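Input (structure):
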């Protein structure tokens, strides 16, 4: 039974009674930022053993609910792709510190092309602006590793791809920080949909290992979207904040001068002006003719 979002010690506490059982046995294990419970039963027949295991799994489902994402050989990305397919939804990714890990894991799943639109790896600040429409001013003000920039990255890739969700991450994989006081293992993960942007702060400091940080951060991102789709993001314990971002192109559009046609006289105004000029010219000619006759 695969669980994400609950630590091993907390699992021991929540499932203490089942873990203490003798048949079936329930044994917790932790690996790469997540945990799983191995349920083993002994019986005279395979069917009887399977029945015992199934009953215990149902009890675990009641205890852990949506923290359970799969069983047996399932992986987080399998659960996400299956969910996207069931709901006819699509996703596109924008990654910095994970350098394509999220998109790689999603596309490892057979049939992922039905739900995965595209992925961008925007490692430099310039690429975030060029490829994702993130305003340069936003990066300069908040830094690349910030909730504001992650939110903008998510919106940028969603708009660019036409996907239902934009999933983005910006963080510090290590072994060194980015020259600020931000710790190695820090990342901001953002989801964008038609209603706005939602950002999760993640901190992976169990190991100062670059590969560990990148893999576990990608897991955090995949699980975040999984919970978001089933409306269970509250399981992330209030770590998610909503943002309303503005892309660089949207800022430019807002400050653009109105088109010339909007400041020119309207058609009816121009016609009236022509009539006025014609009438005035005719009047001058008539007046000039009268003056000539008098002479």
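Output (sequence):
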């Amino acid at each position: 039974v695969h669980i994400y979002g609950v630590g091993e010690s907390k699992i021991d506490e929540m499932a203490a009674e089942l873990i203490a059982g003798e048949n079936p046995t329930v044994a917790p294990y932790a690996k790469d930022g997540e945990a799983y419970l191995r349920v083993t039963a002994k019986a005279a027949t395979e069917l009887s053993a399977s029945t015992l295991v199934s009953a215990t799994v149902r009890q675990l489902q009641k205890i852990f609910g949506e923290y359970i994402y799969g069983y047996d050989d399932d992986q987080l990305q399998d659960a996400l792709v299956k969910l996207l397919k069931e709901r006819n939804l699509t996703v596109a990714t924008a990654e910095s510190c994970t350098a394509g890990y999220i998109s790689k894991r999603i596309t490892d799943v057979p049939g992922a092309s039905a739900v995965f639109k595209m992925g961008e790896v925007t490692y430099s600040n310039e690429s975030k602006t060029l490829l994702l429409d993130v305003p340069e001013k936003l990066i300069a003000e908040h830094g690349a590793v910030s909730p504001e920039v992650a939110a903008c990255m998510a919106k940028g890739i969603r708009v660019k791809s036409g996907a239902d969700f934009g999933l983005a991450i910006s963080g510090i994989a290590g072994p060194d920080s980015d020259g600020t006081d931000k710790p190695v293992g820090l990342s901001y993960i953002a989801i964008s949909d038609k209603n706005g942007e939602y950002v999760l702060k993640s901190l992976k400091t169990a190991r100062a290992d670059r590969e560990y940080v990148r893999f576990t951060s990608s897991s955090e991102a995949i699980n975040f979207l999984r919970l978001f789709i089933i409306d269970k993001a509250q399981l992330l314990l209030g770590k998610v904040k909503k943002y309303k971002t503005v892309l660089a192109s949207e800022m430019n559009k807002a400050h653009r001068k109105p088109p010339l046609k909007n400041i020119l006289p309207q058609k009816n105004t121009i016609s009236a002006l022509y009539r006025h000029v014609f009438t005035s010219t005719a009047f001058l000619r008539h007046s000039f003719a009268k003056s000539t006759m008098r002479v």
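Notes: The CA atoms of residues 257 and 263 lie 10 Å apart. The first helix runs from residue 8 to 14.
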